Amino acid sequence: MEKPDQFRDLFRMQKALNERIGVKTGGMSEEEKTKWILNYCRAMTQEIAELTDSVPWKWWAKYQKFDDQNARVEVVDLFHFLISLAQVLGMSADDVFAAYVKKNAVNFKRQDSGYTAKDEHDSKHI
Fold first, then answer.
1. Cα separation of 77 and 83, whole Å?
2. Are 8 and 86 in contact (CB under 8 A)?
């Protein structure tokens, strides 16, 4: 039996959720894209703050405990907004995967070379 394409399924499910909420990411004007890119970036910033609060980072507070379960939920929330952001930019699951593979190769090349200098052009092909 063939395993389902989980990454594509996430994109399909997020599209359905966005449309249920009233956000149609396809065919947006430049103004709408700008609005939703900012909305999703702000939402991800909030989710990162919530993820941070799952970890006992306040050295002055002795009451904190690591909340593994909540940290996992916040990571999933980040995926919701990250996939939505990709969709606003017109990226499919296949597009994200292909870009990830290329960028991963760039990152390995940077590490192999010691990453001693910034090259603004090494990611232009992605």
1. 10
2. no
H helix count then E strand count, the chain: 4, 0
The two three-digit tokens of residue 60, written as one number:
């002055």
Whole-structure pTM over 0.85, yes or no? yes
What percent of the chain stands above pLDDT 90? 82
Which domains, from first to last, does the chain contain?
Answer: 8-92 (1.10.287)
Residue pair 23/83 in contact by the 8 Å Cβ criterion: no
pLDDT of residue 79: 98
Q: How far is CA 93 from CA 89, 96, 110, in A?
A: 12, 5, 25
Alpha-carbon span 43 to 46, nearest angstrom: 5
Question: What confidence tens digit (pLDDT) does each residue in 15-62 have?
Answer: 999 999 999 999 999 999 999 999 999 999 999 999 999 999 999 998
> Rounded distance, CA 47 to CA 87, Å?
19
